[in-house]
Amino acid sequence: MTKKHKRRNFFIKKDFQGKLIFSCFLFVVGAGLLFNVLLGGLSADPLTVSNVNQNIEPARTPFMLLRQMLTDNWFLIVIGSGFVITASLLLSHRIAGPLYRFEATLDNMKKGNLDSTIRLRDKDQGKELACKINEFNSLLSQSFCTIGHNAKALQILIEQATTLDLPEEEKEQLASLCWSMQEHNRKIINNCNYYSS
């Protein structure tokens, strides 16, 4: 029987997810307030009479509607707010998870490890970007391997050039030239060896 993965951490990127959840909540609250303002604006002139605890209370319609809505529907407002927060948290995982994986892979690349790849879940966002980063990582790794192999081959050729039987004057010039090429080649090899594939 396969064991289902349980999420241990609800907040992957706390700042990002907190801002996203707060933005969604403000959007829903703002839409509700806008609806109430428009409804109040359309019914601004009439006077409304209501019966509260066997007392007749006259009031302006917009204020009466707002008071009635808040007192009658407070439970639904609280449940709806909880639903909006929960839904935006779950939806934020589809963005925050890939961002975390992108950062981890790029940190590995910065440390010289070019063999790490980005793996995303089926419903995650950013699959195209992950594919492009993985392709770039693979091409970069192959390029460094090729440069490293060419640098080693150049090192062998330099060593062979120093063993040539030449007149003494040309041998000194060749030795100076070979030393310079070896130094540049050593720098190339060191830079290529920093990245592992």
Number of helices: 4
Give the distance, in angstroms, between the N- and C-terminal Cα atoms: 36 Å
Oligomeric state of the chains?
Answer: single chain
List the strand order in the largest sheet. Answer: 1-2
Radius of gyration of CA atoms, rounded to a whole number = 34 Å
Shape verdict: rod-shaped
The overall average pLDDT, rounded, is 80
Strand-residue fraction? Answer: 5-15%
Unreliable spans are: none
Largest sheet: 2 strands, antiparallel
Helix content: over 70%
Structural class: mainly alpha
Order of H and E elements? HEEHHH
Number of strands: 2
Walkthrough of the structure:
By secondary structure, this protein is mostly helical. Helices cover 72% and strands 6% of the residues. The protein has helices at 14-42, 61-110, 127-162, 168-194, and strands spanning 47-52, 55-60. The chain has a two-stranded antiparallel sheet. A hairpin with a 2-residue loop joins strand 1 and strand 2 (55-60). Helix 1 (14-42) packs antiparallel against helix 2 (61-110). It is rod-shaped, with a radius of gyration of 34 Å.
